User: Fold these one by one.
Assistant:
Number 1:
Amino acid sequence: MRTVRTSPTGTRPATYSMRLAPGELPVATWRLEHGWRPDGSFEEHAHDFPGLAYFQTTAGRLRTGRQVWPIEAGDLFVIAPGDMMGDIHAGDLAGVEGWGVFFTPDALGQDVPGAHLAWRTHPLLFPFVRGGAIGALRLRVPEPDRQGWVDRIRALGEELARRRDGYREAALAHLTLLLVGVSRLAADVVGDLRENHEPLLAEVFEVIERRYPQPLSLRDVAAAVNISPGHLTSTVRRQTGRTVQQWINERRMVQARRLLTTTDLPIGEVGRRVGFPDAGYFARTFGKLHGTSPARWRQAGARPTGGG
């Protein structure tokens, strides 16, 4: 897995998107170890995918949105798509030990809806829905449970690194248990989250989910939710870091990847079913977003890569 950076625009910081190799699981872990020093990539930024940051030690500070959090052992930060993460100053994370886990809704199975709608409708993803751009949600893992969190994240990281037989099922099981833990810790804030669920965004993504297989543009979505295209563009970009057209393409690509790896449909038919009647345009769009052609993606997905 690699991330792709979109340069800052206007008041928006840089945004990072997850890019996968063919056949790769959309899950990644990273480790913060004692003495770790950030490099230039840790500027003020946002992700367009959800993540977790869990800290084992009391040391340093984390900047999210407009807040600066002193890090304490047992801190768990729930990072929603679009949340602004502050730039890391020298020494901010010196002495910190912890883990990060990032993923996309694809990781939770074939039946999970695409893009932002999944974060609103899947019970394990609801803690990640807070309207975006406000900074990560800070939760506390009780002391008796902390070693279990470390063990679970380490086990997930090991499965992703070693890719032994059955690693996909094992990694999904570990990720699911982590998200169950997040949901339980966030139970006290669920009421507040539901009251601030950004009904406009919810309506926008419901339109995309319902109509992505058909011709669909920014103007079509704006008309469906009864606001101007300009206002819709600024609202969605501010809250999620992406444009409406990028979200339409993301939903289409989620389904395209599924059809390429689970069916024998011709490439042109796959494109048609996800809203691209022109097979050439589908192939170009897919290649631009994934760095490979639909045919090569299918071939790599069908070929065993270390088992699982």
Number 2:
Amino acid sequence: MIFAARAVRLMASLFAGAAPEKLPVGGQAVIEGVLMKGPERWGLAVREPGGGIMLKTWPGSEWLKKGLWKFPVVRGFATMVEMMRVGMRALSMSADISLGEEEKITPLETALSVGAALLGVAGIFVALPMFASEFLTERFGFTHFEKNIAEGVIRGIIFIGYVALISLWKDIARVFEYHGAEHKTINAYESGAELTPENAARYPRIHRRCGTSFLIIVILVSIIVFSAIGDGGALWRVGSRIVLLPLVIGVSYEFIRAASNSDTWGAWSIKPALLLQYITTREPSSDQLEVAMAALGAALAPSNDITTAGGAENGTDR
């Protein structure tokens, strides 16, 4: 069914997204396009079946800049929620555009896709590692700390295996190419280079703030956090992971944020997590780099001056 395939694409696109971004820009790959976040707005660029580039822009959420949401740790979870919310919206738009009007996905199919993706994440990346570590503990007599290490290692192996497996799918490989285009464009922009496909192609497709690296850090932080709480039955373990997830995400965000600003300890500490990006990114074409640069231009341009390369169409949501 179409929603099942789209659920896999949704999970892959979220894994291919950038972690909560270091201003002024961050991004995420979508279907045949790229979503970029500037200081004030989001910019989405998608390659249309006819060859043009469709643009959409909308303002960033003001609530992230106010009250409790500005404080360390809390801001990490809030930013991740916003990235996922906007990322799903952009993914739905990109799917409608790339499929064409005659194959437009209905709201019900979208809801089923999101539901299937969330159930997949909960079952494969939360429940399965937890019960597998329980089995190993009973068999080998692990301590509480060793059991949590086993759970984290199993979760990491499952995650890496999942990403490697879906990367063999042609549609997902295209998303990973746009992921590479997003990274190359951001690297070129942050280096102060003139943004042309030729210039961007010379920059690496690896970036320290990538969502793939962020998820690896989340796994490592979860080992520490879950080891610090008491042991209990299956209900306690599942419940504690749900309740403490915002803390794990918030701490991971702060680590990535600090590491991305450091060219010494940060650069070295994040290196192992960067290796996974060689799976979740592919070398993009010039056309894909053009789309990524169009998205970045839309995210950074003044609201009354949205332009793209190649005479792309544009639209705004206010």
Number 3:
Amino acid sequence: MEIDFTPAPLDRTSRVYIAGHRGLVGSALWRHLESRGFTHLIGRTSEELDLRDRDSVFAFFREFAPDVVILAAAKVGGIMANSTYPVDFLSDNVRIQTNVLDAALEQRVGRLLFLGSSCIYPKFAPQPIPESALLTGPLEPTNDAYAIAKIAGILHVQAVRRQYGLPWISAMPTNLYGPNDNFSATGSHVLPALIRRYDEAAASGTPYVVNWGSGTPRREFLHVDDLSGACLHLLETYDGASHVNVGTGQDIPIRELASMVASAVGYNGESRWDTDKPDGTPRKCLDVSLLAHTGWAPQISLSAGIQDSVDWFRKSRADVRL
């Protein structure tokens, strides 16, 4: 079905449902939208609304009838969590996505943004990775279950566009970090894991820190406050079937990242690398030319973002996910 839609600034009184509003991404979206004058934000914790429960999700949408939906809810984790619990990552995320997207379709929600992950791309995708690399090769085995769930979400959004003509879009962020991140030993991603590890070593005077892998893989990082700005920008300026990469277009080796974190926390000891642990994909840097073409660019440098995350972690340590 042909889509008759022209992107425009969102009405600040729109009912905007942020699925996953307490997480890393959702909380940043909530802060950003509030700062931009949105007055009717809707959020529910997982205790208040289990997005895996189809009947509850449909009842919620019928009651609140949101005008805009941002689907930021997901079960997420690092290499260890993804490789240890692939069934959980596949089953939970497929159910969350399907329930929210189907309920939004029943209400004919006019604008929806589905957020995925850069792990959707093949392990040996061309670098930087263009959106066209999707489904062109085998996935990284350590997070293939999560990746398949997110790929299903992209195709679900594209199917709604084709069959029902609704202007829904998808965005694929690179590695994210910032306030409200997960700093747990088993569930965190690389940057919060490094922040916690080096901060604890600095506090205890530990002579060396052991990190996973060789330290040679290259990764790209985006502060979550930059992502929230990109999300609003896309909702107001972009309409297309293709998902949109969201990142900086620049990557660094994990060894260099570890050095930046050590410096930010004031750790002067030695960094060691456990090469018996997996490296994951050797390089993952996004081609962000499509996003740049819409007129958006990140504002927060990696060094400033890391320091911001360290400061937030120390200030909020009693409340963070450890």
Number 4:
Amino acid sequence: MSFEEAPADPDRPSAADRPPRRLTDPRAMRAMAHPTRLALLEALGRHEPLTATEAAELVGESPTNCAFHLRTLAKYDFVEEAGDAPGRRRPWRLKHLGFRVDDLGGDAETNRAAEALGQVLWETWLGRAAAASSRRPQFPEHWRRVTSGSQNLAHVTPEEGEQLIADLCEVLDRYRGRLSDPERRPAGSLPVELVLFSYPVEAAG
């Protein structure tokens, strides 16, 4: 399970300084299992640095509520203050460019925390996909072609499944540098979310 806003590209200083975080602490997992905090991380991944007031406009929450959640994210090492600012402005930035949840071989507490975080992530992704699908008829024709869904089935061993996911992620990594570097975005481009789910068919019942 992962949530990554920018590429782990060692040739880019920002990525080298802030690689994706390997999340193993159940307390941090529980802290992250909140839709507003997830939304704040996503907003910072696209527009950092942000104050609580600026973040509130992007995530649809009050500045007071965003300030509380940003402080909580800082407590668990997800964000940090981004230098000085005039007046009472307090800008924040991501401390890590995304995270990966490591629940393999964890104890019962870690597994429960990872399950709670995973549920928030899956519900968020599926909710956005459903919302985009409902609005698809309003999109220009070229974006309707891009806004699509596909289902595929592959008979693989666990080792082959891991390699398949790695191969797909390698393709997606070609474009992820544009998220944190606007100068690399070609004219007419928009951020497009691609969500990869993988699971044994039998697990779906």
